[in-house]
Amino acid sequence: MANVFWCTNCLNMSTRPRVTFDTRGWCNACQWAEEKKRLDWAKRQDELRELLDKFRSKEGGFDCVVPVSGGKDGSYVACRLRDDYGMKPLCITVTPALSLELGNTNLRNFINSGFNHIQINPDSEAMRVLNRAGFVEKGFPYYGWLISIQAAVVRMAVNLNIPLLFYGEDGEVEYGGSTESKNRAIYSIEYMRRIYLEGGYEKVLNASRLSEGQLSFFKFPSERELAGKDLSITHWSYFESWDPYRNYLVAKEKCGLQEASESNSGTFTNFAQNDQALYALHTYMMYLKFGFGRATQDVGIEIRRGAMTRGQGVNLVRLYDGQYPEEFVPTYLEYYQMTRQEFDAVLDRWVNKDLFEKKEGRWAPLFTVE
């Protein structure tokens, strides 16, 4: 506890994986927000146009792939590519486990706003087994889905010979983590596996004991399959200053995005991550492992975009962070095929006991956010 501290600008915690701080106590996400104000975005726009022209279809086919959920970020990227750059994106959704009706509505609204779309439904039992293995082995409740939104999308793009893929933001750079890709537009499958899958890809696949057929949408294309494909995977946030709230407003206007009627579990916002029930467990596990949850992440975004003071952020984090997703627990138990005791044992296994103590059956923080 003596070594735990918070960013002096936002509230990123020193326990965040791969985060670094400067001599002012600013985390690398805040340093990047500062740097973005001085960045030559015109130069990066030139890079973008060059990239788009390289892959623009000469036969009238699809020019690029955009993974979407029906939420704000993928919708924004798809709109920008279609409306402002004249591209023809093929949008791809990998159906999450325990999808929510609001998410399903938003996806329908997105499709009806004029996009070509493919929905991938991986083997549901394989998804359940991998999500359960991720929950138990890595404390990551939707790890199977996290694999598939990368591996299945890449596989589909390769199979359809559409080698340019646009994901939304580089979360490591934007929110505090590895900065190795800060000045690099294109990233690799190796980067996906090492950073986004946190080096646990092979471990979880092996622990699942699933057949090759069941793992079809959970395995990246082989080197042989990638030969001669010129695969280019990039983040839109490399080419344009990323603003999640702006994305929300555009998606609401152009794609019919709807918000939740109340704030989401563990935070004060209601317009993001409304597609699946497992996200609430994911952010609660993040809180138990590292001491910060969804409210800390949302506060950081608002502070860095100048919409909130740090003092306001502290109050919101103290109020919302680490809420136990009680309303979804029966659903989790049925999905993972666990008893309540088995479920709680997994939580107990992953909790950081330097940061928390158990009181009346629940984990309570030993720290006060400041």
TrEMBL record:
InterPro entries assigned to the protein according to its UniProt record, in alphabetical order: N-acetyl_sugar_amidoTrfase (IPR020022)
Protein's UniProt name: N-acetyl sugar amidotransferase
Organism: bioreactor metagenome
